[in-house]
Design brief:
alpha/beta, 634 residues, globular, binds adenosine monophosphate, single chain, 32 strands, binds coenzyme A, 7-stranded mixed beta sheet, GMP Synthetase, Chain A, domain 3, 24% strand, 2 domains, 5-stranded parallel beta sheet
């Protein structure tokens, strides 16, 4: 295959308007755009202003109109409910979406209104998402592993007219009751949604608390199907909250037009899939990967997408992924490296794979965290297909760096997500905004403007948007990742430059966990560090300084803070360990030396900071970390 990457990349930067207007021809517009890119108010850029379209039409109706209504759109595979498989053709899915869209309209949801979707991985989550898009409502999906408090924060910020939920989620074999969490969240929030629509799952039939809670089936039975509503290209499609450096999450806002154009383009050019093929993103609809590659992009492209309600291991075993690939003839798989590490841990030789025919699988894409070379080699040897690490953020909405398989595969360098995807002008900058030499580590930034589908703004927080992403490096978007570009133009993304940690591909703010720990009545001061973990990449560990005079058993206090984090942030934080220390190491100006403590915990080389106020404290911390299994030389 000839390699078209360099030419495509060059054109995307030299002539972005031509490049993206050509891509935009591949989607359905009610009204063409007046301008490809509005650059009048940097750093706020808008793609395809003046254009009108509907995202749901492009995901569903369009394929029916072109004669592909009988093609499978969605395959729901749920080992946690006894391996039930449900398949929806484009026509069936469209009918269900139109009816639920009608139900939302009947509850007063109109264009621009927000709808929070707090659901497990069931087809109704996809239906609710697409129903919002159909009527121009703005959805905000909240991941099921968050606690009531986190849901409440999102309710107060998004102010949804309606919340859509279910009676339960299922974690391997454990039933997670959603209604108590939903009720508690609505109780905690200052803003009250008008109604909640609840899907009764056979695994947990629950009584609805009062008339503000409506039964999914009942509202759908009464509903009339709703048509697609044309929206402006620049209207918001969704808000997706992600961790920021404070406890307050950032509501990333995505538009309709740019999102559709970039995601549709990515299916062929990054993933090299064709309409009618089977695409599986083993993620969760609560995360950006789930939004983009379980729901939207595969449907825009006329593929069959898989919604998998299960884990890579334990549902029932480490052969679960191989079963799904073989059973549904998956062509491309996208997941997080942590999922492959989980499989490797349980079945290091890949014995379970031998029972399945994986001949349909052409490539494996990994994202969510850096793919460590060990995992890359293991997956490559086992599957004997290209394994592609690609680099993403919730903010970008799609890959910023990847081996673009549809433009011709480049050679793989382990540890690197390869090169910038067309449209992304990636630079590595030093403190004075100067571009660094190949190999020099600095801040990974994107030269403005960014391509379509990058975030529009932060919901209700334009000033925070500008401050967070554009204030340090003028003319650039700051990704808050550090890394370098090598002599061959390959990008290496090494770590975050802020206090975000990455736990099993989930993005968490250590600051948010610290806020919870600090609320314990016996805690005077605290810090949270992300320590290396073989399975999850990183795990949060708390360091607590107690108020003077506290005599309570320290084990009890650590158990209490672990419970608090689970209740306030959610089990997804995987916060299980905390230690009590005499004091925290700080610089003379009072900055807590989290980085040094993390290096000690991970047995990395570290240097005594010249500005530390009390060097002895680091020895004590090292000893305490050893007692809980860290800071030990391998
Ligand atoms: N609802 C309720 N609870 C949830 C949940 C949900 N949707 N998702 C996770 N949790 C809970 C888990 O049950 C677990 O609880 P526990 O502490 O009681 O065991 C906790 O949150 C941590 O979950 P997780 O990080 O998923 O760990 P795990 O041990 O259950 O599974 C992996 C480990 C590696 C198998 C799993 O993390 C995985 O598949 N990760 C892939 C991540 C991913 O897709 N990321 C998206 C970016 S591409
Ligand atoms: P999220 O917004 O949850 O998708 O998390 C985004 C962050 O995850 C990025 O800023 C990176 O720190 C990290 N990340 C995601 N994919 C990769 C990758 N392929 N390589 C390195 N880091 C990654």
């Amino acid at each position: 295959m000839t390699n078209n990457y360099s030419a495509a990349y060059k054109k995307s930067l030299d002539e972005p308007e031509t490049f993206w207007s050509e891509a935009a021809e591949d989607v359905h517009w009610y009204k063409r755009w007046a301008k490809v890119l509005d650059v009048s108010t940097p750093p706020l850029y808008r793609w395809f202003p003046g254009g009108e379209l509907n995202t749901c039409y492009n995901a569903l109706d369009r394929h029916i109109d072109s004669g592909d209504g009988d093609r499978i759109a969605l395959i729901y595979d749920s080992p946690v409910t006894g391996c039930k498989v449900r398949k929806f053709t484009y026509l069936e899915l469209c009918n269900e979406v139109a009816l639920f869209a009608g139900a939302l309209k009947a509850e007063g949801v109109n264009k621009g209104d927000r709808v929070i979707i707090y659901m497990p991985m069931v087809p109704e989550a996809v239906i609710a998402i697409l129903a919002c898009a159909r009527i121009g409502a703005v959805h905000s999906v909240v991941f099921g592993g968050f606690a009531a408090n986190e849901l409440a924060v999102r309710i107060d910020d998004a102010k949804p007219k309606v919340i859509v939920s279910a009676t339960c989620g299922i974690e391997t074999s454990r039933i997670i009751e959603y209604l108590p969490l939903l009720k508690e969240a609505i109780h905690l929030a200052n803003y009250k949604p008008e109604k909640s629509i609840v899907l009764q799952r056979p695994e947990l039939e629950a009584e609805l608390p009062n008339s503000d809670y409506l039964d999914w089936e009942t509202v759908v039975k009464k509903a009339k199907p709703a048509d697609c509503v044309p929206v402006a290209s620049t209207d918001p499609l969704y808000i997706l909250y992600t961790s920021g450096t404070t406890g307050e999450p950032k509501g990333v806002v995505r538009d309709n037009g740019g999102h559709l154009v970039a995601l549709k383009w990515s299916m062929k050019h990054i993933y090299d899939v064709n309409p009618g093929e089977i695409y599986w993103a083993a993620s969760d609809v609560g995360w950006v990967v789930g939004h983009s590659y379980i729901v939207y992009a595969p449907l825009f492209h006329g593929c069959s997408t898989i919604l998998y309600e299960g884990k890579p291991v334990g549902t029932p075993d480490a052969g679960a992924f191989w079963r799904v690939i073989a059973e549904h003839r998956v062509n491309v798989l996208f997941t997080a490296p942590t999922a492959f590490r989980a499989i490797k841990k349980e079945d290091p030789k890949g014995n379970l794979l031998k029972a399945y025919d994986l001949s349909s699988l052409r490539s494996l894409f990994l994202a969510g965290e850096r793919t460590d070379p060990d995992t890359l080699y293991w997956a490559q040897n086992l599957l004997d297909i290209p394994v592609i690490d690609h680099w993403w953020q919730t903010e970008s909405g799609w890959a910023m760096a990847s081996n673009c398989m549809g433009l011709g595969m480049l050679s793989v360098k382990p540890g690197s997500p390869t090169k910038p995807v067309p449209g992304w002008d990636i630079r590595v900058l030093g403190n004075d905004c100067e571009e660094l030499q190949p190999g020099e580590v600095g801040a990974v930034c994107i030269k403005l403007p960014m391509p379509p589908s990058s975030l529009l703004t932060l919901w209700n927080a334009e000033a925070r948007f500008i401050e967070s992403y554009f204030s340090t490096f003028k003319g650039y978007y700051e990704t808050s990742d550090a890394g370098y570009i090598d002599q061959d133009g390959y990008i290496f993304v090494m770590c975050r430059t802020d206090d975000i940690i990455n736990v099993a591909g989930h993005r968490l703010s250590t600051g948010a966990i610290e806020e919870v720990l600090a609320a314990h009545p016996d805690v005077a001061e605290c810090a949270v560090i992300g320590v290396a973990d073989q399975l999850k990449g990183q795990l949060p560990v708390g360091l607590l300084v107690l108020k003077s005079g506290v005599t309570k058993d320290s084990n009890l206090i650590t158990l209490e803070v672990v419970k608090m984090v689970r209740e306030k942030i959610g089990p997804v934080a995987s916060f299980k360990k905390a230690i009590i220390v005499g004091r925290l190491p700080k610089t003379r100006s009072g900055k807590i030396l989290r980085g040094t403590m993390q290096k000690i915990a991970d047995c990395e080389d570290w240097r005594m900071p010249a500005t530390i106020d009390d060097p002895v404290i680091l020895d004590e911390i090292g000893e305490r970390l050893k007692a809980i299994g860290y800071a030990k030389s391998p």
